[in-house]
Design a protein that fits this description.
The protein is built from four helices and twelve strands. By secondary structure, it is α+β, with helices and mostly antiparallel strands. The protein has a twelve-stranded antiparallel β-barrel. It has helices spanning 2-5, 45-50, 153-158, 175-190; strands at 9-14, 24-28, 35-41, 61-66, 72-78, 86-91, 96-103, 110-114, 120-126, 132-136, 142-149, 163-168.
Length: 192
């Protein structure tokens, strides 16, 4: 886990899979392209089949982040939701690191971040184009920037696979929550 948590910049790349019904992401070091970890959705057969008929937003989600050796680092879960999503982020020790709560808005997308006790850690706000998101603490200080990167017209038109650039501005203590937030933003705003 130390290798993942100690970085200030990441690339989170959603993998394209024609036969795969579950989401999968690679976490890469933008400086040298080295593999830092993966995030894979774990779904039952029934959930995978339900995706053929229902919007993903209505189904529960369980994502597991693993380091390069395959050890579990984080678990991100969301119950089935009809409206705003709430993701719970747990560490490898099953302790709640945070909750990410979608704030409903047509023009200003956002996510409220709370710790395991319900205390605010800050907010993530995005622009109306849903491309750039700023994670700020309760005093308005920047913690991280999440940028949705364009991968070319063909990839954008033919797939829902997205790539994000994550930059941590503060100390790396919020790296894991920021990585979880990147994937949650993908689920909330970019999965069709």
């Amino acid at each position: 886990m130390a290798n993942i948590a100690m970085k200030h910049k990441y690339i989170v790349k959603e993998m394209v899979g024609a036969t795969k019904l579950c989401e999968s992401y690679m976490i890469l070091d933008p400086q040298n392209g080295s593999f830092l970890g993966s995030i894979d959705e774990e779904a039952t057969t029934a959930q995978s089949l339900a995706r053929a008929f229902l919007d993903k937003a209505f189904l529960p989600v369980k994502l597991v982040m693993r380091d390069p050796q395959g050890n579990q680092v984080l678990e991100i879960t969301r119950p089935a939701a009809l409206a705003s999503s709430v993701f719970t982020v747990r560490g490898a020790d099953n302790k709640i690191l945070g909750r990410l709560k979608q704030k409903f808005s047509f023009m200003n997308p956002g996510v409220a971040i709370e710790d395991g006790n319900g205390q605010s850690l800050g907010t993530i706000a995005g622009g109306w184009r849903f491309r750039n998101f700023q994670f700020k603490d309760n005093n308005g200080n920047p913690i991280a920037t999440i940028r949705h990167k364009s991968e070319g017209l063909l990839r954008e038109l033919l797939t829902t696979a997205d790539t994000y650039e994550l930059e941590i501005h503060a100390d790396t203590s919020m790296s894991m929550i920021s990585l979880a937030a990147t994937v949650c933003i993908d689920f909330i705003y970019h999965e069709d």
